[in-house]
Amino acid sequence: MNKQQKAQIISELVELINSTDKIYLADCSTIGGIDTNLIRRQCFEKKVKMKVAKNTLIEKAIEQSNKKDVLSGVIPHLKGETAIFFAYEAPNAPAKIIKEFKSKCNGKPLLKAAYVEETIYVGDESVETLAQLKSKNELIAEIIGLLQSPIRRVISALENKKGEENAA
C-alpha cells in the first residue's frame, strides 16, 4: 500500500469519525469470509458502516479528527485486527450485531472499545450494556408516553363519571 492509498484511507476514516458519535472498535479476527459478509449485510440493514483498517491508520485518523480529545481513550485498545463500526441511527446497532454474531462465530467479534454519545466503553463485557441502550427518539417517546399516562387516566375517569351520571 503506497502513501497515497494510506492518505485516502485516513481521509475516509476521518470523515466517518467526524460524522457520528457512535463508534465501535471490535476484534473480528478468525471470522471466516461468509460470516464477515453476513456481518456486513447486517450492518447495511441497520445503517451501520463497517471498515477494517490497520491500527496505525485508525490511530492517525482519530488524531486528525474533530474528536481526537474524546477518542484518545480508545487508542490503547488498537491492538490486533480491528474492525471499526460507525452507527448513524440506533446507538446500540453495532452492539446488537456483535452480540448476535458472538454465538455464531466462536465468541468473535470481541468489543475492544466504543465511543457512544460522549461516553467511552472498554472491553467486551460492555456489549450487553451497549446492546440495551436506547436512541434519543426512543427515550423521547418513552417520556411522552409516561407524561401522557396520568392524563389518559384522568380523562378516562372523567368519561366514566360522565357515563354514570347520564345513566342515572
Category by helix and strand content: alpha+beta
Task: Give the overall silhouette.
Answer: elongated
| Main sheet makeup | 5 strands, antiparallel
Strands of the widest sheet, in order across it, are 2-3-1-4-5
Please, what is the CATH homologous superfamily of the largest domain?
A: Ribosomal protein L10, N-terminal RNA-binding domain
Q: Determine Rg (CA atoms, Å).
A: 22 Å
Name the beta content range.
15-25%
Can you put this structure into words, describing what you see?
The mean pLDDT is 85. Strand 4 and strand 5 (119-122) form a beta hairpin. With 168 residues, this protein is α+β, with helices and mostly antiparallel strands. The protein contains 7 helices and 5 strands; from the N terminus they run αβαβααβαββαα. It is 55% helix and 16% strand. It folds into 2 domains: 3-133, Alpha-Beta Plaits; 134-168. The chain has helices at residues 3-18, 33-45, 55-64, 68-71, 93-104, 127-131, 136-167; strands at 22-27, 48-52, 83-87, 110-116, 119-122. It has a 5-stranded antiparallel sheet, with helices on both faces. The longest helix has 32 residues, at 136-167.
Give a brief description:
The chain folds into 2 domains: 3-133, Alpha-Beta Plaits, CATH 3.30.70; 134-168. It is built from 7 helices and 5 strands. It has helices at 3-18, 33-45, 55-64, 68-71, 93-104, 127-131, 136-167; strands at residues 22-27, 48-52, 83-87, 110-116, 119-122.
